[in-house]
Specification:
Number of strands: 5
Shape: globular
Radius of gyration: 19 Å
Order of helices and strands: HEHHEHEEEHHHHHH
Oligomer: single chain
Number of domains: 2
Protein name: 5'-3' exonuclease domain-containing protein
Organism: Peronospora effusa
Helix content: 40-55%
Distance between the termini: 13 Å
Keywords: Hydrolase, Nuclease
GO biological process, one term: DNA replication, Okazaki fragment processing
CATH architecture of the largest domain: 3-Layer(aba) Sandwich
GO molecular function: 5'-3' exonuclease activity; 5'-flap endonuclease activity; DNA binding
Strand content: 5-15%
Strand order of the largest sheet: 3-4-5
CATH topology of the largest domain: Rossmann fold
């Protein structure tokens, strides 16, 4: 990574177990069905952090904040400052952060956010997500709020097909603009169904939407530059 991408900063973000997170409050069963982290792995975390810190790799965690939200917030801060961002994770939740690179809607100088998934040895770019879902990556939380999410056990709106959800989100520009204009829908049955499910839809959205505005534990200008030997 250091030789190929020549990063200004490399950061590894850890979940903190010291305080209940917002999603844990919203959904008490959140992550409870996951297998516990093996003790042999837990004991290696402290050692891994020491090795990373020796190479000036930033190790970041914050009680009460999920690593995903910290990463989303750093990504937003970096792109706002004009930096490209490479996310390294197998977690599909980060697909919503991907942007740019080859979109006709963005200039060649716009910051790019890519996701590298080590288990599949592949880079995921905006064009890949558009081809798969028919939507800009930033609208994936909106899509899952309507069409459900298997692994997060979020419900689908009754009788709402994926292509209809994509059409509505594209037409209105997102979930909340759609919910504000339900009375404009030609399909009265769909209109009533969405109205009946608004509470569930909004709850699902809060579960899948990464928060990209949390206070950063360390400002980007204070992060260390990597030093590999």
């Amino acid at each position: 990574m250091d030789k190929v991408h020549a990063p200004q900063h490399i950061s590894v973000v850890f979940d903190s177990k010291q305080r209940l997170t917002t999603r844990g409050i919203l959904q008490p069963s959140y992550k409870r069905d996951r297998a516990p982290t093996p003790r042999s792995l837990v004991s290696q975390f402290a050692y891994a952090k020491k090795i990373l810190e020796m190479a000036n790799v930033n190790c970041i965690e914050c009680p009460g904040l999920e690593a995903d939200d910290i990463i989303a917030s750093y990504s937003t801060q970096y792109t706002a400052a004009g930096f490209d961002v490479l996310l390294v994770s197998n977690d599909n939740d980060f697909l919503q952060l991907v942007q740019g690179g080859d979109s006709a809607n963005l200039s060649a100088t716009s910051p790019v956010v890519e996701l590298y998934q080590p288990s599949k040895r592949r880079y995921v770019r905006e064009r890949n997500i558009r081809a798969r879902f028919g939507l800009h990556p930033k609208l994936l939380p909106d899509f899952h709020a309507l069409c459900g999410h298997k692994w997060k056990k979020l419900p689908r709106v009754d009788n709402l097909a994926d292509d209809v959800a994509v059409q509505l989100l594209t037409q209105y520009g997102g979930l909340y603009p759609l919910l504000r204009h339900l009375d404009e829908l030609d399909d009265s049955i769909l209109c009533n169904t969405l109205k009946r499910c608004i509470t569930s839809i909004e709850s699902s959205y809060r579960m899948v939407k990464l928060v990209d505005s949390v206070t950063l534990p360390v400002a980007i200008e204070k992060l260390h530059q990597p030093q590999f030997k």
